[in-house]
Amino acid sequence: MTKNDLQIDCLLCQQEGGIVIWTDTTYRVIDAQDATYPGLTRVIFNHHVAEMTDLPHDERQHMMSIVCTVEAVVRQQLKPHKVNLASLGNYVQHLHWHVIPRWSDDATFPDAIWTAVKREGDGVIARQAAIEGLLPLYHAELKQRLMKDFGGSAV
Ligand SMILES: [Zn+2]
Fold this sequence. Notes:
Helices cover 35% and strands 19% of the residues. By secondary structure, the protein is an alpha+beta fold. It has a 6-stranded antiparallel sheet with strand order 4-5-3-2-1-6, covered by helices on one side. A hairpin with a 3-residue loop joins strand 1 (19-23) and strand 2. The longest helix is centred in the last third of the chain and has 29 residues, at 122-150. It is globular, with a radius of gyration of 16 Å. The two termini are 22 Å apart. Bound molecules: zinc ion (ZN). The site of zinc ion has 6 residues, from helix 1. Zinc ion is lined by residues 7, 10, 12-13, 48, 94.
């Protein structure tokens, strides 16, 4: 696959989609910079395909290995109550996985983060601040683990 696989009208073909933590020729892992859900990380296929089954079989396995490494580092460093993995792409039909650390006191738990807010206020703000404080170490460990497991380069 080449740069010709990029589409002019696709957000993830035209932009990184967040702060790049790690990349190789085929994937990038980004911090989504989501203020409501700090730690939300995305694994993005660098070429424009919409579905997992657009990938050759071994590439599907490779992508899920990257997703699992991100999940493992999320668990180790952020210690969430739960991790949500999601590949939706209804708005941006460019293959990407969300790795979402969740806490029982976050804004929408136990529903998906894209649903109506259930709670807000000091508790939610305190949780967000605590997670923000862990992000530098989380990102450093994530860079190290992804480079160890998959090569590529940290940004
Ligand atoms: Zn695209």
